[in-house]
Automatic annotation (TrEMBL):
One of the record's GO molecular function terms: antiporter activity
InterPro entries noted in UniProt: DinF-like, MATE_fam
Domain of life from the UniProt record: Eukaryota
Transmembrane segments: 6-23, 35-56, 97-120, 141-162, 168-190, 197-216, 242-261, 273-302, 314-335, 347-371, 383-402, 409-432
Membrane protein topology class: Multi-pass membrane protein
Subcellular localization, as worded in the UniProt entry: Membrane
Protein name: Protein DETOXIFICATION
Signal sequence interval, chain numbering: none
This protein's UniProt keywords: Membrane, Transmembrane, Transmembrane helix
Family membership noted in the UniProt record: Belongs to the multi antimicrobial extrusion (MATE) (TC 2.A.66.1) family.
GO CC, any one term: membrane
Amino acid sequence: LYPGTVGIDLILLALPAVLGQAIDPMAQLMETAYIGKLGALELASAGIGVAIFNILSKIFNIPLLSIATSFVAEDISKNASKHSTSGKLELPSVSSALVLAAAIGTIEALALFLGSGLFLKLMGVSPVSPMYKSARLFLSLRALGAPANVIMLAVQGIFRGFKDTKTPVLFIGLGNLSAVALLPLLIYGFKLGITGAAISTVASQYIIAILLMWSLSKRAVLLPPRVDQLEFGGYLKSGGMLLGRTLSILLTMTIGTSMAARQGPTAMAAHQICLQVWLAVSLLADALAVSAQALIASSYAILDYKRVQKVAMFSLQIGLASGLALAVGLYISFGSIAKLFTNDPQVLAVVSSCALFVCASQPVNALAFIFDGLHYGVSDFDYVAQATIVVGVISSLVLLYAPRVFGLAGVWAGLTTLMGLRMAAGILRLLWKSGPWSFLHEEPETKPLAS
């Protein structure tokens, strides 16, 4: 391991980020648990709606979040200046990210609201399905939160570029506290069912977005006085590449959800439980990845390759250790965790058949996320996009074939293949002697011995 300033900086950034990354999946787990008590049909309906919302909203959100972190960190290292009167930072990367977030969020909301029926059909849920009516209403309501969701993620990326992972945690926590109060009140108190769950989530998203924007306005100029000061070129170029990556991953995940839905409501309910647990624990590694990304981006911008190498190696070592610990912890407790979501014996039986995949994939997931963070830190967006597209094609083929033979276990075999190949692609790039990591293979300079 690498102690000292690199390790301390990474851990101080990662610890709040871990909490921040955990809050949203835990909130989704809580929502799933409340809905699960309503019955398997309600859980399956909400699961389809959540899957569609995540697919559509993350197509642009993930690239914007990742690029904003690197661009803001680089902007601060190279070009940071302060407003003449307010003393706030004037960063084109910040203003450009916010304008793009507002535009993208509005487009997503319209697409999800107006196209809810079409999206359900694409997921294999026809109008005659018992899930269709409630899933469509749930998705239409969740669509209203899309603008807040995109802005919230963009501002988180900006704060990460500032190397500040504490502020987002505070406001995300406050926003999700509102959901804690609203979920049981609306679902059970007002007897709104999954409609109440959707309303609770949308309300918390707007609370978080407003609080984050208010905090950011104290530190940086949100919008420049002139439109020509905005810089969309870098975002659009890098975003275009990462859009391909995101589409590849989401298409693969969509195929997995669709194949699970075709197994029936019981299998879909079990898949939703496994997926929420899988994402909740594996995304914790993303906290370490985004912390490493911010540190690497600021160091790489000033050509401090020695520090970049230390951050990368330390991140990978910690990631592997945490992944192994998560695998063991989940293996021991997965049966008890599943019972928090449902008491249906049929659903629990199907969940147990996929538990091994969820547990065993944790070290692989951790390294896959961290490799993404490392490559984002050196702005190697082209390679990440191209490699992920290839990985997605291979994994999709597995997902299309395996479930027909092995049922829901085949779905999880395909998802595990996706993460394993992503990890392999990350390792391969570090071994290349050309590209942004070429400095790893350069011979160290040696001083001649004095005669």
